[in-house]
Amino acid sequence: MDVLSDAIAAMRSGRPYSALTEADGPWSREFPDFAGARLHVVLVGAIKVVLPGREPVSLTPGDAVVLPRGGAHELVDAGVRTRLLCGAFQLEQARPHPLLAELPELLVQTARAGEHAPLQGIISVLGAELAEVRAGRDAVLPSLLEVLLVYLLRAWMDEHGDGRNWDAAMRDPVVGKALRAIHQDPAAPWTVEGMGAAAGLSRAAFARRFSQLVGQPPLGYLTWWRLALAARMLRTTDSTLAVIADRCGYGSQFAFANAFKREYGVSAGRYRRLRRSDHEHIGEWERPG
């Protein structure tokens, strides 16, 4: 998988939730802080998105917002009948992937004629699925919602990502290639020398370039990513610690257990017992009104 897809997959805990909401007349809806990401897309009408300490953001049909860290906000009507597509994703917040952690608290993606056609297409498909209960709906909705989140993040990064460390890292011909290789095979016996040689750079030059863009040394990120994958497997599977250790690049269960406890502050077994309850469906929020 690529870095963005992996970042979302590794942090996800529980089943995403989506809803189609219609409102007419004066209304508002407050959304408290949420351990995950939220998104809102205007299908018909207009709304204002209000965050504490910020000027309201106005949205019209086709416009969308993403709150990567689920910050508290309010939706307020703009005096017209409105139809909204809303979504929520439970995400691991204690140890977020740095790619998502560096995003601002609110991403605004405005609709423009002829631009981001695939994004507008997935919005239409998801809206149609929510509007009518049909066979297979429960299987389709979570996948469509995750695709929508990826498309929104991709579109925003294409327009606003320049200068951000992780966007630059993924686009960099050397560091981006190394990141993709790590994500494709995290269990491989990676070394800084090997990564540098594959990129045609010396060990020192590669390490310096990687650290500058990613924010940590190559082996530091590799360890971080391996343990993030392990944490997801502990939350969402019944795999034994030995199997998880092997899939995440640790030579023994003992080495994995020590590394995990050092990073997370609890044993892998205790983490599994504490966090398995997170892998649940998000309850519905009430309609604005």
Automatic annotation (TrEMBL):
<dbReference type="InterPro" id="IPR018062">
    <property type="entry name" value="HTH_AraC-typ_CS"/>
</dbReference>
<dbReference type="GO" id="GO:0003700">
    <property type="term" value="F:DNA-binding transcription factor activity"/>
</dbReference>
<dbReference type="InterPro" id="IPR032783">
    <property type="entry name" value="AraC_lig"/>
</dbReference>
<keyword id="KW-0805">Transcription regulation</keyword>
<dbReference type="GO" id="GO:0043565">
    <property type="term" value="F:sequence-specific DNA binding"/>
</dbReference>
<dbReference type="Pfam" id="PF12852">
    <property type="entry name" value="Cupin_6"/>
</dbReference>
<protein>
    <submittedName>
        <fullName>AraC-like DNA-binding protein</fullName>
    </submittedName>
</protein>
<feature type="domain" description="HTH araC/xylS-type">
    <location>
        <begin position="176"/>
        <end position="274"/>
    </location>
</feature>
<dbReference type="InterPro" id="IPR018060">
    <property type="entry name" value="HTH_AraC"/>
</dbReference>
<dbReference type="InterPro" id="IPR009057">
    <property type="entry name" value="Homeodomain-like_sf"/>
</dbReference>
<dbReference type="InterPro" id="IPR050204">
    <property type="entry name" value="AraC_XylS_family_regulators"/>
</dbReference>
<keyword id="KW-0238">DNA-binding</keyword>
<dbReference type="Pfam" id="PF12833">
    <property type="entry name" value="HTH_18"/>
</dbReference>
<keyword id="KW-0804">Transcription</keyword>
